[in-house]
Amino acid sequence: MKNDRLETIKPGYRGNKTINGRFANGEELYNPDFRKVLRWQLSRNPQREQKKHDDYTPLVQEGSDFIHDQRDMLVWLGHASFFIRLNGITFLTDPVLYDIPLVKRKVGLPCAPEELKNIDFLLLSHAHRDHLDKKSIQTIFENNPQVKALAPLRAGDILRSVNPNLPYQEAGWYQKFDLVPGSVEVYFLPASHWHRRGLLDMNKVLWGSFLLKTPDLTVYFAGDTGLDGHFEEIEELLGPMDVCLMPVGAYKPSFLMRRSHLNPNEAVKAYNQLRGGLFIPMHYGTYDLSDEPASEPVRLLEQLAASGVLQGLRIPAIGEPVLLHDMI
């Protein structure tokens, strides 16, 4: 499957493979084994005490001045949500601004969700509830009637249920969206993940990553992903990447998480495969989704940077503007 109206940039690529109507990771259909979820719930976390006493949360730099600043920048809003401005166009990735089902947000935003204005595009990597949150999208659309959503194949039904008037465009892997003005190119690219929101929709909606490209800057947003061969494929086709927004949390226990999420070592390996410049971590510290202690991802990244394996590490506070051209 692909969107036949969009350009496909990988030579000879026919589209995303489906098996019995369900999307695959490349050629392989991945159905998470929920016996492993039961095993996780019934087993004792070997880091239980360490996690219990780890009260780490990311720092928050309060304020909304970045919303009106016209310089090229990105601002982490927690989890996988970034405010990104390139060439005067503003993007918001995977906006999740509130508590999610069964999980409370551990750390605040730099400003009220209603203050997030002048947003041109939502970049939605996949439809898990910690990445596609209906309440957050409703808030953004109410305060940004001009906003459009760029989303994976078959995400349209979910977006129409958010608001039937929200414009959106779906893409498959290796496709270029055509809604964005020519000063920024936006590509939907692979990730190794899966989909489920309800009982009967396993892998019915695609997942992926994004590349934002200007004539002098590339920003790669990895979405949710396990380690697979797609990073090398992306680099070969479009690399190197100037800025890599990489997920580094929710990786323990490994038997449950490793095919869906990157641990810090894997994230750095993927970043090096992408020949990345700036490494900015995400998907940690905002929601408690897994067994690792809250501060562990940051501590491991700092160790990797000190060893020389990771060049270009930048760990911004939530709400702290990172001026892109100053960092490259």
Features:
single chain, 328 residues, alpha/beta, Metallo-beta-lactamase, Chain A, seven-stranded mixed beta sheet, 9 helices, Metallo-B-lactamas, Metallo-beta-lactamase domain-containing protein
Short structural summary:
The protein has helices at 34-42, 48-52, 134-143, 156-162, 230-238, 254-257, 264-273, 296-307, 324-327, and strands spanning 7-8, 18-19, 22-23, 73-76, 82-86, 89-93, 121-123, 148-152, 168-171, 175-176, 185-189, 209-214, 217-221, 243-247, 278-282, 321-323.
Written description of the protein model:
The chain is of the alpha/beta class. It is 21% helix and 19% strand. The protein has nine helices and 16 strands. The chain has a seven-stranded mixed β-sheet with strand order 1-10-11-12-13-14-15. Strands 9-8-7-6-5-4-16 form a seven-stranded mixed β-sheet. The chain is globular and about 50 Å long. The mean pLDDT is 94. One of its GO terms (cellular component) is cytoplasm. It comes from Pontibacter korlensis. This is Metallo-beta-lactamase domain-containing protein.
Shape: globular
CATH topology: Metallo-beta-lactamase, Chain A
CATH architecture: 4-Layer Sandwich
Figure out the total of helices: 9
- Parts with pLDDT < 50 across at least 5 consecutive residues: none
For the secondary structure, the number of strands is: 16
- Could you give the order of strands across the largest sheet? 1-10-11-12-13-14-15
Tally the structural domains. Answer: 1
Rg over CA atoms, rounded to whole Å, is 18 Å
Kindly provide the name of the CATH class.
Alpha Beta
Summarize the biggest pleated sheet.
7 strands, mixed
Strand content: 15-25%
- Assign a percent range to the helix content: 10-25%
Look at the structure and name the CATH superfamily: Ribonuclease Z/Hydroxyacylglutathione hydrolase-like
SS-derived structural category:
alpha/beta
Query: What do the pLDDT scores average to?
Result: 94
Roughly how many Å apart are the termini?
36 Å
Helix-strand pattern, N to C? EEEHHEEEEHEHEEEEEHEHHEHEH
InterPro entries: Metallo-B-lactamas (IPR001279), RibonucZ/Hydroxyglut_hydro (IPR036866)
GO cellular component, one term: cytoplasm
Pfam families: Lactamase_B_2 (PF12706)
Organism: Pontibacter korlensis
